[in-house]
Amino acid sequence: MVNILMFGPPGSGKGTQSVTLAEKYNLLHLSTGDMLRAELAAGTPLGKKMEAIMAAGELVPDDVVIALIAGKIDSTTGKAGFIFDGFPRTVEQAEALQKMLGGKGMKIDLMLVLEVNDAELMERMKKRALVSGRADDADENIINNRIAVYRAKTEPVIDFGRKAGFLRSVDGVGSIDAIFGRLCKEMETVI
Ligand code: B4P
Predict the structure, then answer these.
(1) Which of 95, 104, 150, 166 could bridge to 154 as Cys pair (CB 3.0-4.6 Å)?
(2) What domains appear along the chain, each with residue ranges and CATH number?
(3) Do residues 93 and 66 touch, judged by C-beta distance below 8 A?
């Protein structure tokens, strides 16, 4: 089983690229953002608790997302591995994932970091707001907060990946197909 982390700032294209990478390489796509939005949409107690945090562009507590991911890893069969999209978002989440995988005889094989400048991120999320209905895309201040939270809490995971030796940076600006091609080149070093 191969384990890939799709990493990058909000709006960098993690979700967009993870879907097609998962199809091409027969991986299970695990997006913590999608899982949390599904809880919100279903009106579960967990979703109700997380709604305000997500709408403000803050991170939900580590134990919540770690539990969501653990449940999925345990119940998956018939796949060549996992692509983790938007997880881990803190060093604590990264350490928990490494421990979880280690306990099952697996490891993190590759961490793909999509590099996109802030102006481009803002433009993409404002465009997405027109169709997504997402509260966290609708307001420039919230988008700025998400980018600030990324720099403060999530970017340190890059150092974690660099030290562990599985980090690969990829230019995340250009056409979706061109970026997909760049990511596939990196994937083929581990698959
Ligand atoms: P996510 O769902 O992970 O959302 P995201 O970071 O905004 O989006 P992504 O990078 O996937 O961008 P996309 O492909 O859609 O997180 C949402 C919230 O959930 C977080 O703020 C947090 O509150 C919570 N959460 C999630 N995981 C968590 C965790 N582990 N711990 C704590 N909290 C967590 O692309 C964006 C837009 O750009 C799209 O419209 C797309 O069409 C467009 N686009 C993509 N590639 C493009 C390209 N090359 N050129 C032009 N446009 C492009």
Answers:
(1) 150
(2) 2-187 (3.40.50.300)
(3) yes
Phi-psi region of 174 (alpha: psi -120 to 50; beta: other; left: phi over 0): left
Please tell me the distance between residue 189's alpha carbon and the centre of ligand 1 in angstroms: 25
Cis peptide before 45 (omega within 30 of 0): no
The overall pTM is greater than 0.85: yes
Measure the CA angle with vertex 68, ends 129 and 106; round to 5°. Answer: 115
How many residues does this entry show for the chain? 191
Residue 12's SS3 state is: coil
For 110-123, write each residue's pLDDT tens digit.
999 999 999 999 99
Confirm or reject: Cβ of 116 under 6 Å from ligand 1: no
Give the C-alpha separation, 104 to 126, whole Å.
40
